[in-house]
Amino acid sequence: MTYSGAMNRIVDISTDGLHLAIFRGFLTVSKSGEEQGRIALDDIGGLIVHAHGITWTNQVFVQMAERNVPVVLCAANHAPVSVVWPLQGHHAQGARLRAQIDASKPLQKQMWQKIIASKIRLQGQVLKANGKEGGAFDLLARKVRSGDPDNIEAQAARRYWKALFGNDFSRDQDAGGMNAMLNYGYTVLRAIVSRAICASGLHPTAGIFHSNRANAFALSDDLMEPFRPLVDQIVCNLAARGYCELTPDSKRQLTSLTTFDLPGAHGTSPCTLHVNRFVHSVAASFENGQPDLELPSLPTPLELAGLGTLPEEETR
User: Fold this and answer.
1) d(CA 155, CA 117)
2) Which residue, 200, 241, 291, 296, has fewest beta-carbon neighbours within 10 Å?
3) Which pTM does this prediction carry?
4) Angle at 242 (CA atoms; ends 162, 173), nearest 5 degrees
5) Are residues 37 and 186 in the same domain?
6) Does residue 73 sit within a domain?
7) Residue 209 falls within a domain, yes or no?
8) pLDDT 10s digits, 104-125
9) What is the DSSP letter of 313?
């Protein structure tokens, strides 16, 4: 079991044969009848499970749902295959769900334009932080039109992955190595975003751009986009420190994303708070019909270089 931060912890269950239960306000983790650890329920921001032979009490799911904490179940490649979602969330959930479903196509396209432009700018900043040429990404971001009909996002991605990880790198969800680390980091991010969506009274299925009927978390995937390059930067930092595979240490450093401080309109705040504000602005945009999204400012190269760095004792 690994987890990050002091609040909004991402709890990772990766050891086979564990038993999860609830005891006096704590999530307890046991093996063969002996407790291995516990964490206060109110500190948990997401529960990620990708181990075999895990057993649960029903109260684990009940208590997670009551706190709007997503329980993410992963496949062997560390990509999520299921998320346990609470039935009730924000007090204004009904009105916001109607506004989300009834949102006009022009509004959705304008929101998508801002989301993708923000993502591309951050991709450029990540490249600059790693000594790569990222100036062209500012130009690409300015070229994104409503709904991104020219697919500037894909154009940026083709340049980005090769520039960041080398010409031999190919983004493959089923591959190991750095791809597995990316998968895991995106799973952490998806859990953060999914919790914020539930807390804002929105539903993860009705996306802004993604509309695959088989994707029950289309909105989560949409709203992850402006923050994805932060995961890429952590993986870059891990690779520079000699991490080539997903390990317990690299997982801890990837989950530190939750506490990474980002600049924004309200000053510097942890990434989790920025996600909450951004998702809340999405909900408000659905209601007022205006694409007024609160997106984080670009972190400096020095700030990006510190992503995923934990004190030595926390990586043991």
Assistant:
1) 12
2) 241
3) 0.82
4) 45
5) no
6) yes
7) yes
8) 999 999 999 999 999 999 999 9
9) G
